[in-house]
Amino acid sequence: MTSWTSCLPSSPLSACPHPVYVLITLLKAENPNKYRDIVPFLRPFHAQCVRMSAIYKRYKGSELGDVIVAGGVIAEGSVDRALKGKHYKRGLRCLSLMYEALLSQLVKGRLVPNLADETRENLEILRDTSLSKESHAAAHVALEDDADLESLITNLFTQVEASDMADYWRDFLSMTDVLMQNVHAVHICNWDECHARRSPGRTRRELLTWSGALSRQ
User: Fold this and answer.
1) Comparing C-alpha atoms, which of 42, 37, 43 is closest to residue 12?
2) How far apart are CA 91 and CA 70, in angstroms?
3) Using CA atoms, how far apart are residues 192 and 202, in angstroms rounded to an integer?
4) How far apart are CA 78 and CA 69, in angstroms?
5) 161 or 118: whose pLDDT is higher?
6) Organism's domain of life (predicted)?
7) Which of 8, 76, 80, 105 has the largest count of CB atoms under 10 Å?
């Protein structure tokens, strides 16, 4: 029978799949002095799957899966495994669509009513596919330089009602956002080119923090 120690890496710093990571973590907990020099790291794919599982653990009682099934995103028999990270692409699709749906409701309720007329006109230009590329580019630049719009977006989450339920789903947006940023950064193979709201270092820290906390539940 193969010993657990045969799974240990030869290098002190090692990127490993999730099952091996769990074994190393257990061994380090049982023998902290013997294995103190070994520092395991989850590979990106496995870290993202663990992240999806952490989101599932936190929101499995919220009928999140029922909403996704009712929306025709995935079949009822597959939704649990997808949200647990067992079906990688399906899980990402489910979470990203739910994220976009919640964010869309937030934008429609909090952002759109406060938009200036000029901002609305530029948005309409971007939606009109019959206009020229130059018109679209000019509208895009105007929106990027719109200080009032930037302020509205910055304050979007701070204006949400203060309640346990609001905080609960705001955490969902935050957790999913971190996951998607990590996926994007790995996909383009360049953290420096990842134009995300959070820094890559913070993204990784938040991913590991949430995953570690929820793995104990």
Assistant:
1) 37
2) 16
3) 13
4) 9
5) 118
6) Eukaryota
7) 8
The values of phi and psi at residue 41, to 5°, are -130, 135
Structure tokens that stand for 203 in this block? 């993204």
Neighbours of 169 (CB within 10 A): 18
Query: Cβ contacts of residue 129 below 8 Å, gap of 6+?
Result: none
DSSP tag of 74? S
Length of the chain: 217
Lowest mean pLDDT, pick from 27-31, 82-86, 206-210: 206-210
* Beta bridge partners of residue 13, listed in sequence order: 39
What SS3 state is found at 112? helix
Report H helices in the chain. 18-30, 44-59, 64-70, 76-83, 88-106, 117-127, 133-144, 147-154, 164-188, 200-214
Average per-residue pLDDT for the chain = 78
The residue type found at 149 is L
b/e 86-108 (16+ beta carbons within 10 angstroms → b): ebeebbbebbeebbeeeeeebee
Q: What's the CA gap between 134 and 91, in Å, rounded? A: 38
| Domain definitions of the chain by residue range | 1-42, 43-214
Record the pTM. Answer: 0.66
Asked if residue 17 lies in contact with residue 48, where contact means CB atoms within 8 angstroms, the answer is no
Alpha carbon distance 136, 50 (integer Å): 40
Cα–chain-centroid distance for residue 41? Answer: 19
Backbone Cα Rg of the chain: 21
